C-alpha cells in the first residue's frame, strides 16, 4: 500500500535511466523491510508497507541525481543500508523510492585514530581494513558482519565496545558526516562537531548520509570467554565489577540469565541448564586478573577462544545485544524484547527487585555500557508476550521505579529513545527537506510542527 501515484514513480524512473534500478515486486518487498517483526506491536502496523522501486547509487553524484528526481516529482525517498534495524527505521510508510546505499563502500582515507568512509561500507569489512594499521572501529551492533556504517549511525545507538566507549551520541564517537539535501536544488553539506547530531540517529529523515568520518580505537587481541555462575545476581554483580575495573581492557560484558543460554544451540555444551552466563571479550593481556574476578564471584570459565582464532567458528558477539533476541525468537517466536537503562547503583538493587518480581515472564539479559562516564547495566529483556496492554504495563512499571525504557515498539524517533523533540533535527529538516519527502512519517516533531 502506497500513497505515491504510478505516474510520479514512472517520471522519477525515467529521469534515472542508466542507474541500477529494481522494480521486481518480490525484490522491492524484501528491500522495503527490516527486523521490525521482533515487535508484535509493529508487525500489523508495518507488514503492508512497501516501496515502489529501489535505486542503488554507486557514488554521490548518483545520489544527487536521485534526490533531484524525487524532489522534482514530489516522491518520497527512504534511505536503506543493510536493513538490520528492529524498529522499522527503513520501512517506507508512504511508498516511493528506496535508496539502497550498499554499493557505496569506498574507504576514502584512514590513519591512526580515524577513518573516512562511504556510508554503505559494511562494519566488518571496514574493521578488517583498519586492523591492518593496528586500529579498529570503537563500537558495533551484533549485526556487525552485515550492517553498514551509515545505517548504524542513522539508526543505531551503541553496541559491542560501548562498555568502554559509551554510545554513538557521546561527543567524540562521530567526527563528521556528509549529506545530500532534498531541496529544489539538492546540495552537499559537510557537518562537523555538534552539527553531526542533526542527522545522527534520525533514521534518514533529514538528509542522505553519503560519507562519514569516525574515530578508531587501538586494536587489542580480544579473547572470547564464557563464565558460568550459580545465580543471576552473582553474574550481574560480576558484570558490574568487571565493567567498573579501569585496568581491565574489555570490549563486551554480556550477562545472560537462565534460561536464555538454552536458546543458544552452539553454546549449550558450555552453559549447562540452570547456569547464568557471562559472555566476554577481554584483551588477552588481562586474562590473569580476569581469573581473579571470576574466583571472587564464584564463577567458572567454561570456554576460552584466543585472539588468533578470531573469525573462526563461534563468534560470541553474535549471541549478545539484539542477537540474543534473534536466537530466542528462532526457538520461540512469541518472545519479544525491551531496552532498558537501569539507575547508577553499584548494588543493582532495582535490577534484583525486578528480576525476582517478574520471574520467567521478563528475562533480564544485560549489556554493560558507559553512560555519563559510569558503567551501567542496560537490559535487553526478553519478554514472553501476551498482549500489548500487558507489555505497556511492564514498561510503565519499569519507568515508575526509575528505569529508563528505550521503547522498541514504535517507529517514531521521539517515542523510542529520546522521549522528547530534538529541535535541532526538526529545524535541519525544515531547512534541507522542505517538502517532507525523506522517510516520511517517522519524525513526530515534523508531523506535529503546526
TrEMBL record:
Signal peptide: none annotated. Gene3D superfamilies: 3.30.465.10. It comes from the Bacteria. Pfam families: FAD_binding_4 (PF01565). One of its GO terms (biological process) is lactate catabolic process. One of its GO terms (molecular function) is FAD binding. PROSITE patterns: FAD_PCMH. This is FAD linked oxidase domain protein.
Amino acid at each position: 500500500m502506497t500513497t505515491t501515484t504510478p505516474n510520479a514513480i514512472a517520471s522519477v524512473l525515467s529521469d534515472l535511466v542508466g542507474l541500477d534500478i529494481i522494480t521486481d515486486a518480490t525484490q522491492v518487498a524484501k528491500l522495503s523491510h527490516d527486523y521490525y517483526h521482533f515487535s508484535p506491536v509493529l508487525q500489523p502496523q508495518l507488514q503492508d508497507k512497501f516501496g515502489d522501486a529501489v535505486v542503488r547509487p554507486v557514488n554521490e553524484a548518483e545520489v544527487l541525481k536521485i534526490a533531484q528526481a524525487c524532489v522534482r516529482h514530489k516522491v518520497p525517498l527512504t534511505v536503506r543500508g543493510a536493513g538490520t534495524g528492529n524498529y522499522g527505521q527503513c520501512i517506507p510508510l508512504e511508498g516511493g523510492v528506496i535508496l539502497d546505499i550498499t554499493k557505496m563502500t569506498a574507504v576514502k582515507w584512514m590513519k591512526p585514530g580515524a577513518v573516512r568512509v562511504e556510508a554503505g561500507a559494511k562494519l566488518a569489512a571496514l574493521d578488517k581494513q583498519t586492523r591492518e594499521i593496528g586500529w579498529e572501529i570503537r563500537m558495533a551492533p551484533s549485526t556487525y558482519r552485515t550492517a553498514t556504517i551509515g545505517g548504524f549511525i542513522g539508526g543505531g545507538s551503541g553496541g559491542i565496545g560501548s562498555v568502554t566507549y559509551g554510545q554513538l551520541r557521546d561527543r567524540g564517537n562521530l567526527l563528521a558526516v556528509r549529506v545530500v539535501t532534498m531541496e529544489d536544488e539538492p546540495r552537499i553539506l559537510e557537518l562537523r562537531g555538534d552539527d553531526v547530531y542533526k542527522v545522527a540517529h534520525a533514521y534518514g529523515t533529514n538528509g542522505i548520509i553519503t560519507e562519514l568520518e569516525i574515530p578508531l580505537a587501538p586494536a587489542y587481541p580480544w579473547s572470547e570467554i564464557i563464565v558460568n555462575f550459580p545465580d543471576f545476581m552473582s553474574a550481574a554483580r560480576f558484570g558490574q565489577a568487571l565493567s567498573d575495573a579501569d585496568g581491565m581492557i574489555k570490549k563486551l560484558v554480556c550477562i545472560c540469565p537462565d534460561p536464555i543460554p538454552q536458546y543458544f544451540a552452539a553454546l549449550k555444551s558450555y552453559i549447562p541448564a540452570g547456569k547464568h552466563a557471562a559472555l566476554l571479550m577481554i584483551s588477552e593481556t588481562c586474562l590473569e586478573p580476569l581469573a581473579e574476578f571470576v574466583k571472587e564471584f564464584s564463577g567458572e570459565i567454561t570456554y576460552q577462544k584466543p585472539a588468533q582464532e578470531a573469525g573462526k567458528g563461534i563468534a560470541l558477539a553474535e549471541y549478545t545485544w539484539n542477537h540474543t533476541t534473534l536466537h530466542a525468537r528462532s526457538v520461540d517466536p512469541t518472545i519479544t524484547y525491551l531496552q532498558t537503562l537501569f539507575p547508577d547503583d553499584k548494588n543493582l538493587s532495582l535490577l534484583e527487585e525486578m528480576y525476582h518480581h517478574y520471574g520467567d515472564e521478563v528475562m533480564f539479559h544485560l549489556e554493560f555500557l558507559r553512560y555519563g562516564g559510569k558503567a551501567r547495566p542496560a537490559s535487553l529483556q526478553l519478554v514472553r508476550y501476551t498482549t500489548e496492554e500487558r507489555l505497556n504495563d511492564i514498561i510503565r512499571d519499569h519507568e515508575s521505579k526509575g528505569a529508563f525504557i528505550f521503547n522498541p515498539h514504535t517507529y517514531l524517533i521521539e517515542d523510542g529513545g529520546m522521549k522528547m523533540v530534538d529541535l535541532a533535527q526538526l529545524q535541519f529538516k525544515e531547512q534541507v527537506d522542505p517538502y517532507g519527502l525523506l522517510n516520511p512519517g517517522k519524525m513526530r516533531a515534523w508531523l506535529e510542527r503546526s
